[in-house]
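Entry for the shared binder. Reason: the reviewer on the internal report wants the predicted structure included alongside the sequence.
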Amino acid sequence: MEKFILNVEKRERTGKGIARQLRSKGIIPCVIYKNGQSTPVQIPTKELYTFMNIATREKLFVTLKLDGQEKQAILQDYQVDPVTGKLLHVDFMEVSATEKIRVTIPVVLIGEPIGVKQDKGVLQHGISEIEIEAIPEKIPGHIEVDVSHLEVGDAVHVSDIKFEEGIKVISNPEEVIATVTVEEEAEVAPSIEETVEPEVIKKGKKAEEEEEK
């Protein structure tokens, strides 16, 4: 897992109005969680977007520098405007180097299946993330799954993935990651924008209620 560094400042005041004022000044309100406790903080939008453009595709460790101290954390959740897609709020989870944590890791499919090249099959994507439990240093940024060997009718399941010792798989081992079907059986999946553009974060929970914690 890659590492990143962000300089954060404590927020002395919270609330919807304060959050809107911060965003108008180019600052994103955030919260750091640990053991049921929360610390309101803020991070400049430009600095945070650099991190988010990677963290929404790749699991990252981040060092949060706060009041002369360094906290190790991962992205836990984030909130976006349902209309503009702009980032509104970010949640971090502080982690310990020696304690196991549960996280979901993105799945990346590698290669073109034989069944697609030779038999005009269609590659169908299953789950896009796998949940695991491990100490932070064991957690990969993403999981690569080679699908080049798949013929029509073949599938790759969670149970087929070999993980490093010390990683416990939480996801159902029978979950399908990818399969190759004949064209008439395939359902057309909506296209997904993989690149997170500055100013617009595509994924994340919708802001049904605009922050604040």
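Summary line for the report: The helical segments are 16-24, 45-55, 114-117.
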